[in-house]
Design a protein that fits this description.
The protein is of the alpha/beta class and 513 residues long. It has 16 helices and 20 strands. It is 32% helix and 19% strand. The strands form five sheets. Strands 1, 2, 3, 4, 5, 6, 17 and 18 form an eight-stranded mixed β-sheet that branches. The structure holds 3-acetylpyridine adenine dinucleotide. Residues 62-65, 150, 156, 158, 171, 188-194, 215, 217-218, 304, 327, 351-354, 468 line the site of 3-acetylpyridine adenine dinucleotide (N01).
């Protein structure tokens, strides 16, 4: 693909530049290689593969989607220890898959994308990357961004937080050097990360005479975690019995898929989950006042449904206080709530989520008309065609792009679907000898109008909550509002008819070839 442009010594030319080495970037590298597209480079800002499963090392970090499904279909793992595996196992799985894939020689670590600009004259992406050896330019035909939808930690905008003198870190950047024994610790947030962290902290602090304050702004719905350890015989069966892994995966997949109507059509269908969540509260907490504080006042499913058997008992334990008065400010050594109460704190953990609707990477990607993707999306809202391609950004593919998120199932399924679409696009480029493909504006708009029309009746819009799914205008630009069967079908074939296809411009090198 890059044969027609002659590289200068300061540049490296490849067919595909992939950004990020998490599930998405790794999947793209492996599948492109299988398709005979081995001329790629993966740049990764950290020192290893793994993405969110490398970064989130907080105590208790584990997947809340069953591992048999939360893994690549082409790299099944019979050795998961639990149905919901802990973070170290998932990271180890990703490292093993990367090692065995034979693609790692094209991964460049500790290297950050500074900016990527579409050069319309050469019909290539020109990307400046900075690594241990300084800065260099990579010229590529496609730019595949797998930088993650939940990768840039969001710190809370709380008055005075910058003046805090104790230890402060985000859940996704856990500081393991901080000794928590006997300390006064505060956790801000009660989302998916916090409910895994709180029981672990409670145990540590109870054993060492410490204290935990949990600052809740909105109570989450938490259903029981039906986790179990796989016994040795079952793991052996998963390894040796033909078809068994696939059977597990298929059963889990369809089990999760039954949630979809409750999210997208009729929240009342979720009544059994609501009852299970209320029973979870009753089981874990006996104090009526605390029960009332943790009972949500919006439809279940409006925010992500969380799973835990240990969160409520941890909140009810001695030495733990659930604080629901809004935080007014943070001082040098305390959190002060709106009622004027000042609670001293040594270690402040902010489990306040990620940038989800203003993805920082988009500030660094500049399209055909000279505007960054962030500028385009600030004007018109975050949107893409099939969650993957964007008008004005030729040969640009975004994995885990707009409206591809799920509230109920495995993002690895989504990633594999998008990567198949990417591979189809690359095959179409080859077949047609095109220099650039770009989704047509009308196809893009029709896709997004349909999505937003469907979104109106989902529980995420009607459920009476605000969540990270919605942008500042209340538009849901993150989740997929249909079944994942439909998503896969829509991405199964690269639809050239929805694209402007630009023929390669002959270069002087071509003429002399
Ligand atoms: O972040 P969140 P998360 N003052 O945004 C609160 C995935 N995940 O890291 O609800 C006070 O969900 C905020 O309050 P409110 C999963 O997709 C997966 O927990 O906005 N509080 C909320 O309670 C998940 O959905 C796993 O009112 C403030 C919390 O902080 C996503 O990651 C595990 C505040 C943020 O919750 C994000 O989860 C973990 C403020 N200024 C995460 N600002 C798996 O197991 C925010 N909050 C796969």
């Amino acid at each position: 693909m890059s044969a027609t442009v002659r590289p200068t010594p300061a540049e490296r030319h490849v067919d595909h530049l992939i950004v990020g080495a998490g599930f998405a970037g790794l999947c793209a590298a492996i599948r492109l290689q299988e398709d005979g597209e081995g001329d790629f480079l993966v740049v990764e800002k950290a020192g290893d593969v793994g993405g969110t499963w490398r970064d989130n090392t907080y105590p208790g970090a584990a997947c809340d989607v069953p591992s048999q499904l939360y893994s690549f279909s082409f790299a099944p793992n019979p050795d998961w220890s639990m149905s919901f595996s802990p973070q170290p196992e998932i990271w180890a799985y990703l490292r093993r898959v990367a090692r065995e894939s034979g693609t790692l020689d094209r991964f460049v670590f500790d290297t950050r994308l500074e900016d990527a600009t579409w050069d319309d004259a050469s019909q290539r992406w020109r990307s400046r990357v900075r690594g241990p050896d300084g800065e260099r330019t990579i010229v590529s035909t496609t730019l595949v961004v797998g930088a993650g939808g939940l990768s840039e930690p969001k710190l809370p905008a709380i008055e005075g937080i910058e003046s805090f003198q104790g230890e402060l870190f985000h859940s996704a950047r856990w500081d393991h050097d901080v000794d928590l024994a006997g300390k006064r610790v505060a956790v801000i947030g009660t989302g998916a990360s916090a409910i895994q962290i709180v029981p672990e902290l409670q145990r540590t602090l109870e054993a060492t005479g410490g204290h935990l304050d949990v600052y809740q702004r909105t109570a989450p719905w938490v259903i029981p975690r039906r986790d179990r350890r796989y016994p040795r015989w079952e793991r052996a069966a998963l390894r040796h019995v033909p078809g068994l892994r696939r059977l597990y995966r298929t059963a889990i997949y369809w089990g999760r898929e039954t949630y979809v109507p409750a999210f997208t059509l009729q929240p009342k269908i979720a009544a059994p989950a609501r009852r299970a969540a209320l029973a979870n509260i009753a089981r874990g907490i006996s104090d009526p006042e605390l029960r009332a504080k943790v009972t949500p006042h919006y439809e279940i499913g409006c925010k992500r449904i969380l799973i835990s058997n240990t969160y409520y008992p941890a909140l009810a334990a001695d030495g733990v206080e659930l604080v629901t008065d809004p935080i007014a400010k943070v001082t040098g050594d305390a959190v002060v709530t709106a009622d004027g109460v000042e609670r001293p704190v040594d270690v402040l953990v902010v489990a306040t989520g990620f940038y989800t609707t203003e993805l920082p990477i988009t500030e660094h990607v500049t399209g055909r008309d000279g505007r960054t993707l962030a500028q385009v999306w600030r004007e018109s809202g975050m949107a893409a065609y099939k969650g993957t391609t964007v008008p004005g950004f030729p040969n640009y593919f975004m994995l885990v792009g707009p409206n591809t998120g799920l509230g109920h199932s495995s993002m690895v399924f989504v990633i594999e679907s998008q990567v198949e679409y990417l591979c189809g696009a690359v095959r179409a480029i080859r077949r047609g000898a095109y220099a650039a493909i770009e989704p047509r504006r009308d196809a893009h708009d029709a896709w997004n109008q349909d999505l937003q029309r469907r979104m109106r009746r989902t529980v995420w819009s009607t459920g009476g909550c605000s969540s990270w799914y919605l942008d500042e205008h209340g538009r849901n630009t993150t989740l997929w509002p249909r079944s994942t069967v439909t998503l896969r079908r829509r991405l199964a074939r690269f639809d050239t008819d929805a694209y402007d296809l630009r023929a390669a411009v002959p270069t002087r090198e071509d003429a002399h070839a």
